[in-house]
Give the backbone structure.
Amino acid sequence: MYRKLLIAIDPEDDGEGKRALEAAMDLLAEDGELHLASVYSPGGAGFFPHVTEESPEQKEAEVREVLDLLVRKYLPLNRNASLHVVAGNTGEKLVGLAGQLCADLLLLISRGSSGHWPLRRATVEYVSVNAPCSVLVLPSLEKAEPEAREEHSD
């Protein structure tokens, strides 16, 4: 059992958040601390010029609201979680936060190279190599589902 568990959450994937919280409940000590973190890019629209720019404060508030909703939907009532929303490079911020919190375990869900965010694989690799604690990478459900369908279609 882990005493301090940090979960990296993609605020745009409710299923990923639910899965990560379920896994965390199996791994966290009864009196352990649970921390949910999401990292967003503070820059402008970047490669998506049709997307309007939001202020960093507005983006942070939106991400924090999504994390709060995930906690209320999927975390058992007898558990609490601290929410961390930070701007910057995802891998660097997660590694830094794990060190700052003295986390025992950092939990990630990998989409490999097939996710909406092409840097996801690089982020998982960076965190796995540089984290100051153990890292558990759960495979994506999206990746597992098509294989299961292929097996049943025979």
Notes: The two ends are 41 Å apart (CA to CA). Confidence is low (pLDDT under 50) at residues 45-50, 143-151. DSSP finds five helices and five strands in the chain.
